[in-house]
């Protein structure tokens, strides 16, 4: 029977297992000076009687209360390993010439490269490498140019659409009356105030709609709506007229929509 002290359970072992925490204060500290002299066999049956037990998941240690105290049975190594008290590390440096060495390279090193006026063999090799890379890139570009993706049918946002969304993300808020307050998405804030009865009516070739960003088109396509009408036996339509009363224009822009 080996007298390996690493197999002796401790309160630290019980701390790392939730089902053993109730017996943490009942496990004595390990006495490294104590001698291992006595083995209790089956001839002393009372010593092996289990009075109380804390079990846990499979392949985890369990605790038993005997007449001589609490014991922990099972693998007491944390996750199958023991924490070492010290670690040895060997550091390797890569020298400028590509060699590896235990010695640290000198930081005060100057590298001088000669610049040739004429095309040399090294430049020819470099040019050849660049040509090969360009050919590989061209071949790769041609091999996947006809690949289909899930985003092929999606319409990308334009520059004005992105500007519209940026304005709305920054300035839209809900007021105390639970109404959404939004600004007019002007293309430019240099327009002059004038009476407008029709946003599409032009004056000197410019209308109110011409200087407002339209934003991305979020309407469902008519084809998709008609196809979805065939999926279920009942179709439901709604009117968004009341939704417009939930939005107000910010106070700084209300003069652009004022009536006399």
Describe the structure.
By secondary structure, the chain is of the alpha+beta class. Among the domains are: 5-73, no CATH class; 159-257, no CATH class. Helix content is 18%, strand content 10%. The protein has helices spanning 11-15, 121-143, 159-171, 222-228; strands at 52-54, 62-66, 69-73, 93-94, 100-101, 173-174, 180-182, 247-249. The strands form three sheets. A three-stranded antiparallel sheet has the order 1-2-3, with no helix packed on it. The chain has a three-stranded mixed sheet with strand order 6-7-8, with no helix packed on it.
User: Helical content, roughly?
Assistant: 10-25%
Distance between the termini: 105 Å
Segments where pLDDT lies below 50 for 5+ residues? none
- Structural category is alpha+beta
Strands of the biggest beta sheet: in what spatial order? 1-2-3
Oligomer: single chain
Q: What do the pLDDT scores average to?
A: 76
